[in-house]
Amino acid sequence: MSTTTFDSKAFILKQVWMRHKNVDELTDFFAYNDLGVPLAYAYAEGIVNHSPTLEKCVNETFDQLLEALNLEDSGFEDVQDLYDGLEELGSDPLK
Questions:
Q1: Dihedral angle of Cα 19, 46, 3, 58, to the nearest 10 degrees
Q2: Which of 21, 31, 40, 64 gives 10 a disulfide partner, CB atoms 3.0 to 4.6 angstroms apart?
Q3: pLDDT the model gives residue 52
Q4: What Cα–Cα distance (Å) separates residue 79 from each residue in 12, 51, 53, 85?
Q5: Structural domain boundaries, residue 76
Q6: How many domains are there within the chain?
Q7: Tell me, what's the pLDDT at 95?
Q8: H-only helix segments in the chain
């Protein structure tokens, strides 16, 4: 069960995209989510409004990010929480 809020998911996806879009380990993630990540960015920036379709897309994209990073949803608030989770696992494909 997801504990990260929708707004936090969009914000985290925006941060990961802006900071790590050129990281080799995430190439497949960004290629596959070429719609979900920009939509999350657009929502986080206030460019698009919330809708059920947007929420479904962002939720799926966030779940795939966690899968790509081998993380469980523990109620992340921002990308630093994500980094902390990776550090606890001793793995960090974002660097």
A1: -70
A2: 40
A3: 97
A4: 5, 23, 24, 10
A5: 6-89
A6: 1
A7: 57
A8: 6-20, 27-32, 36-44, 52-69, 79-89
The answer as to whether 95 is a domain residue is no
**pTM for the complete prediction?**
0.90
Give the separation between CA 1 and CA 63, rounded to whole angstroms: 11
59: in domain? yes
- For residue 79, give both structure tokens: 């990308």
Nearest alpha-carbon partner for 8 in 79, 71, 85, 57: 79
Query: Residues of the chain whose pLDDT is less than 70?
Result: 1-2, 91-95
Whole-Å CA distances, 11 to 14, 90, 95: 5, 24, 19
Q: What is the CA radius of gyration of the chain?
A: 12
Distance CA 36, CA 48 (A): 13
| Predicted local confidence at residue 14, as pLDDT | 96
**Tell me, what's the pLDDT at 84?**
86
- pLDDT score for 51: 97
Is residue 1 assigned to a domain?
no
